[in-house]
Amino acid sequence: MSKFSIVILSSMSIISTTLITPQFPVNAQPRTSRTCVDPQPVAQRVALTLKADKKVTKDNKDIFQPIAGKASVRPGDVIKYTVVAKNNSRCPLKNLILKQPIPRGTNYLKDTAMAIDGAELLFSIDGGKTFFAKPMVGTQAAPATSYNYLRWKFNGLMTSNTQVKTTYQLQVK
């Protein structure tokens, strides 16, 4: 029987938030072929940050500018989120999962989230209960505007003091 752990990170995507506290299942433990013991509490082993940038037009070019403090957004505005997870543990982590809700009042913009570093990118249309590469409604593919969660599952090892970064874009309704 192989030993492995599943580490789930979740954060609330709030436009004015730049630092998020990771949430882990109680039994999440880093494991490799040799057991590595880290005395840190599980919640401190991975640092999760969330950065939001607003799309603006400057000199006839679209650019993203950081959102600081309480920013105002209007219908049609595009927000790019960047999620960074860093392994602060002295042990490698296996099966890292990043899970991001799509806040009410926004829509996911199709094809803006990327499966990075070999991660499997999945979407949910049922509040994060189930995830699929292409969610279906009956026999039809669900529109990206119905997605309410994104999830990246990293199947490899995340070594100590390394990080992964993902981005995705939402549009304000």
Written overview of the protein:
The chain has 173 residues and is mostly beta strands. It is built from no helices and twelve strands. The strands form three sheets. Strands 2, 3, 4, 5, 7 and 12 form a six-stranded antiparallel β-sheet that branches. The protein has a four-stranded mixed β-sheet with strand order 1-6-11-8, with no helix packed on it.
The share of residues in helices is: under 10%
The number of strands is: 12
Outline, from the CA principal axes? Answer: globular
The N- to C-terminal Cα distance equals 48 Å
Uncertain runs are 1-32
Order of helices and strands: EEEEEEEEEEEE
Mean pLDDT rating: 82
Largest sheet entry:
6 strands, antiparallel
Number of helices: 0
User: What percentage of the residues does DSSP assign to strands (E)?
Assistant: 35-45%
Q: By helix and strand content, what is the structural category? A: mainly beta
Radius of gyration: 17 Å
